[in-house]
Amino acid sequence: MSADTGPPVAHDASGDFPPVYYAIIRTIDRFSDVTGKLIALSMLFLVGSITYEVVARYFFRAPTIWVFESSYMVNGAAFMLGCAYALHKGAHVRTDIFWENYSERTKGIVDLVSYLVLFFPTMITMMLMTGERSQESIWRALMWPFRASIPLCALLFMIQGISETLKCWYQIRFGREFEHREKIEV
């Protein structure tokens, strides 16, 4: 594995964890890393379109009708589609007051139960959601590309959830993290 794809994956000396699971975890984590970085590129469109709007509005007195809707659609889609990347990087909120006192096995059990009972049912529900037509402006933009980001987000999230579930199983089985992740604090 190359150095720029993240920390090395832990391997157990006894070899009790099936090698195919290592491969699945590595593949999914790489996929989430690449898709997260590609989704981040949508911010370039956001910066460009808002810059265009500011220049058109304040220098040429010609405001657009499309920038407001397209900017909230791109930002909302990027936010949702970036969730799998955030899960991969360990950037989601956790209650540290309890978490830090748990053993590695207990952390794995809590995470595994949370994924199976809360995470996957919620993502399946999100994949079934449908949207409505835009009424925000005279532009009346097509909503399906924006609304399609909801089930796509759920799909990307569930793919990364499979990797996280396998990591929980590893943590329960061997009593240590599959790979150490630094806490991301804001």
Overall, the morphology is: elongated
The largest sheet, given as strand count, sense and whether it forms a barrel, is: none
Assembly status: single chain
The low-confidence parts are 1-9
Number of domains: 1
- N-to-C span: 29 Å
In round numbers, the mean pLDDT is 83
Order of helices and strands: HHHHHHH
Helical run tally: 7
Number of strands: 0
Question: Whole-number radius of gyration?
Answer: 20 Å
How do you describe this structure in short?
With 186 residues, the chain is mainly α. It is built from seven helices and no strands.
Give a written overview of the molecule:
There is one protein chain. With about 190 residues, this protein is mostly helical. It has one domain. Helices cover about 65% and strands about 0% of the residues. The chain has helices at about 20-40, 40-60, 65-80, 85-90, 95-100, 105-125, 145-175. Helix 3 runs parallel beside helix 7 (about 145-175). It is elongated. It starts with 18 loop residues before the first helix and ends in a 12-residue tail after the last helix. Residues about 1-10 have low confidence and may be disordered.
